[in-house]
Amino acid sequence: MNRRKFTKILATLGGASAITGLYAWQVEPFRLEFVQKKMPVKNLPGMLRGKILMQISDMHVGRTDKDFLIRSLKEAQRYRPDIVVYTGDFITENGGVEFDELNEVLDHKVTGKIGTVGILGNHDYGMGWSQADVSNRVTSMATGAGITMLRNSAVVIGGLSIIGIDDLWGTNYRPEVAMLHYTEGTPTIVLSHNPDTCDEDIWKNYKGWILSGHTHGGQVKPPFYRRLLYR
Ligand SMILES: [Fe+2]
Q1: How many whole angstroms from 40 Cα to the centroid of ligand 1?
Q2: How far is ligand 1, taken at its centre, from the CA of residue 115, in Å?
């Protein structure tokens, strides 16, 4: 292979990886996809059959581009959901910017026709997941926006019990208190930001849906490097 040909191959390879990099950096993170699933719930009251429950999770305001979030929420509003659940990580700590931006983002929140609830994620506890004051601030901002925040508590919407467990890594993880609200035979779904709670001995024979967030990314694993996973 002569030098000119070698340089040409190098340039082509460089171009291809630049395009891949650009796609991963500027295109893929802003691709929005709405996934629709059937959600059978045992003993669901007739009035809730065929209704739409929308789950929104891990907005990470403060880290995620605010305009992208607002655009996405506007898109989501078009589904006119009956119930909306926010499964945590409203914010990512970013020197206080996250609170200003959360105010703006929540102006465009999606609300359900019959109910809107939320739980906290680890990032909603600020640095080291240990700042109870940060979690209280996120809670009151979300509550002010009309989201019923469940912190080891439950709410009944149209006969469906929604139980919200506070975050596994936060300072207020009390699943035993949350699950006091569970009665076998009652139509129920549980919100738990961190899916690792599924491995805990807290479920009191509950066998229904557990809606989680927390684990996202992970599709990319560069060679010799850990999987790119965000939590
Ligand atoms: Fe998380």
Answers
A1: 26
A2: 23
Q: Give the Å distance between the CA of 88 and the centre of ligand 1.
A: 7
Number of H helices, E strands in the chain: 5, 10
First to last CA, the chain: 47
Taking the CB of residue 46, how many other CB atoms lie within 10 A of it? 8
Q: State residue 2's pLDDT score.
A: 74
> Does the predicted model carry a pTM greater than 0.85?
yes
Would residue 95 be called left, alpha or beta, if left means φ above 0 and alpha means ψ between -120 and 50 degrees? left
Residues 66/171, Cβ–Cβ less than 8 Å: no
Residue 162, CB half-sphere, CA atoms under 13 Å: how many?
24
Q: State in Å: Cα 73 to ligand 1 middle.
A: 20
pLDDT tens per residue across span 177-195: 999 999 999 999 999 999 9
Question: In which element (H, E) is residue 3 found?
Answer: helix 3-22
The pLDDT assigned to 98 comes to 98
* Cα 215 to middle of ligand 1, angstroms: 7
* Full strand arrangement of the beta sheet holding 148-149: 53-56, 83-87, 115-119, 148-149
Instruction: Quote the ligand 1 centre to 119 CA distance (angstroms).
Output: 11
Q: How far is the CA of 44 from the centre of ligand 1 (A)?
A: 29
Topology of 32-230 in CATH?
Purple Acid Phosphatase; chain A, domain 2 (3.60.21)
Rounded to the nearest angstrom, the distance between the alpha carbon of 230 and the centre of ligand 1 is 8
Q: Determine the distance separating the centroid of ligand 1 and the alpha carbon of 138, expressed in angstroms.
A: 14
